[in-house]
Amino acid sequence: MPALRTYDYAVVRVVPRVERGEFFNAGVIVSCAADRYLAARIELDETLLAALAPQVDPAPIRAALDAIPLVCAGGPAAGAIGQLSVRERFHWLVAPRSTVVQTSPVHSGRTADLVVALEQLMQRLVRRC
After folding, report:
1. CB-CB contact of 42 with 69 (8 Å)
2. For residue 3, what are the contacts with CB-CB under 8 A and spacing of at least 6?
3. Would you write out the chain's pLDDT as a tens digit for each of its 129 residues?
4. Structural contact between residues 12 and 25, judged by C-beta atoms closer than 8 angstroms
């Protein structure tokens, strides 16, 4: 049986009108320091966004969300942040913000497969089935 790995994760939230505090989940970021793993999956539900805030343009929200997996991957495509370590990039991504794209508090889990854990978190916390 593969060894279990401890990982941290945060849910990516869209808060279209910050003053109201209403949000919906749009993705998950997973980090495992031991494996130097950092990945995110993002799925913006534009129908839900339009229902919650019909006056909000989804393009800038989509752009902010699209940047998250780039920061996770690191390297030049992520700009200066992409040069930081995996752990530093994770902490930068999950830092509290008062913007339209925010993250939940950080939670922990254990898994034998980080890719599977990310998919399971997406299924449980983001997708509406």
Report:
1. yes
2. 112
3. 679 999 999 999 999 988 888 999 999 999 999 999 999 999 999 999 999 999 999 999 999 999 999 999 999 999 999 999 999 999 999 999 889 999 999 999 999 999 999 999 999 999 987
4. yes
**92 residue type, one letter:** W
Amino acid at site 119: E
In angstroms, the CA 30 to CA 33 distance is 10
Q: Enter the pTM of the model.
A: 0.95
CA–CA dist 90, 93 (Å, integer): 5
Question: In 21-100, at which residue ranges do the beta strands (DSSP E only) sit?
Answer: 24-32, 37-42
Q: Please give the structure tokens belonging to residue 114.
A: 């980080």
Count of beta carbons in the 10 Å neighbourhood of residue 37: 18
